[in-house]
Write a structure and sequence with these properties.
The structure is a single chain. It is built from 4 helices and 2 strands, in the order H-H-E-H-E-H. The chain is flat and about 40 Å long. By secondary structure, it is of the alpha+beta class. A two-stranded parallel sheet has the order 1-2. Helix 3 links the parallel strand 1 and strand 2. The longest helix is centred in the middle third of the chain and has 12 residues, at 54-65.
């Protein structure tokens, strides 16, 4: 298992929760309300975090498993998304 000694218990817990490595599709399929899965396309390479595509793959799996889920991607230059980028996405999603 990759990671530092401090990460190993968390990684083991995550793996146990995910079983086969994917989301719990049977549980997610029961969600009835609309769900927005929002990820970011990080422009600053130093802020990329986990392996390339990690969050995109996770977001795609959630959208595939939740019946009324939709996905959007924002462009950002740092770790914290600019409210001016997120606001219009939330307004559209909530019909404001």
């Amino acid at each position: 298992m990759a990671g530092t000694d401090r990460q190993r218990p968390i990684l083991a817990y995550d793996a146990a929760c995910l079983h086969d490595g994917g989301p719990p599709k049977d549980r997610l399929a029961t969600i009835k309300q609309p769900v927005l899965v929002l990820t970011a396309k990080t422009i600053d390479g130093a802020m990329a975090g986990p392996a390339s595509g990690f969050f995109d793959d996770a977001a795609d799996a959630l959208v595939a498993a939740v019946p009324r889920a939709e996905r959007d991607v924002i462009q950002q230059e740092g770790h914290v998304a600019d409210p001016k980028a997120v606001g219009p996405i939330l307004e559209r999603f909530f019909g404001v």
